[in-house]
Amino acid sequence: MKIQQLEIFTIDLPLIEPFIVSYDTYPSMPSIIVKLTTECGLVGWGESVPDDHVTGETIESTYAVLKHKFAPLLIGQNPMNFEAIHDLLDKAVKNVPAAKAAIDIACFDVAGKKLGVPVYQLIGGRYHEKFPVTHVLSIGEPEKMAADAEERVKQGYRSFKMKVGRDVTSDVKRIQAVRKRVGDDIAIRVDVNQGWKNSGATLQALDALKSAQLDWLEQPVVANDIDAMVEIKSKTTVPVMIDEGLCNMRDMREIIAKRAADKVNIKLMKCGGIYPAMKLAAMAEMAGMECQIGSMLESSVGSAAGFHVAFSKKVITSVELTGPLKFSQDIGNLKGSYHIPFIELGTGAGLGVDIDEAILAELTQYSDVVKA
Question: What is the pTM of this model?
Fold first, then answer.
């Protein structure tokens, strides 16, 4: 089996409501979809959601790398040779993990279809039967976030990931308001997205939140300040999760060596796809750290890829892959697998996602084809 053609689509996924994090507000979510076709007519789908604050890539740069660097290299390659494909991409361009993720995901999708098995069967088999779905609360005024949380509890959600990171004082009020509204039996995870900057501000916030019963605190400080994470972890009983500070195996080595986190958030867009994510999970398991599979708000394609990794690994104990629930239009049908408060992944070949190419065409802003 050889790759004959790659099509690249830049799309804009419409959000039901704006997604607000510490460093930006997204009225919609830009994404790049890759359609890989083999000489035997099989099709694999991949996705890239770059983030200049996290992966160091933009939509424009990612599109250019995929079109001019990666696609020409891949023509004639066997998409089932995952190690060789990644080696080829790594030698062509340093870093650019979100661009590599699109290729990686498409290769796994088409490999699964060739063999007639789900992707998780290619990477260890199915371990988890279902995962709880955590609702992500965008940054807003305290009462608005609390009201949203209360409504979601009525819908069946039992856990929340709160986006904060504007300033310690207002963030503490947000967290306290949500806790007061939902009661003590609902899990609250706080994601600061680097917004508290340093260990001093973070420890001040944690001191004010002693009664909030947080499940864990995610990436409170700037991504490259691993030593600050070490200090915070040593001075709090709240489990600490690292996200933006973990992109690759080099980062993971430092995190393990310094015991800088209790949990790690693995995202396919940060590490380069399914294959590198499995390597990071294995390293975390060796070090006794639990893993989460997170997302950059991908469509059904990227979200399904993340779920296949999560469902295959014992060390992955939580997921935060809610993109399909937040879009008013999606190119795939993964939304049907969410049965709040759980997601139950299907058994279809490859990613198990059906693509609506009419919606893809409607959402496409520009596209290109590279073929043999």
Answer: 0.97
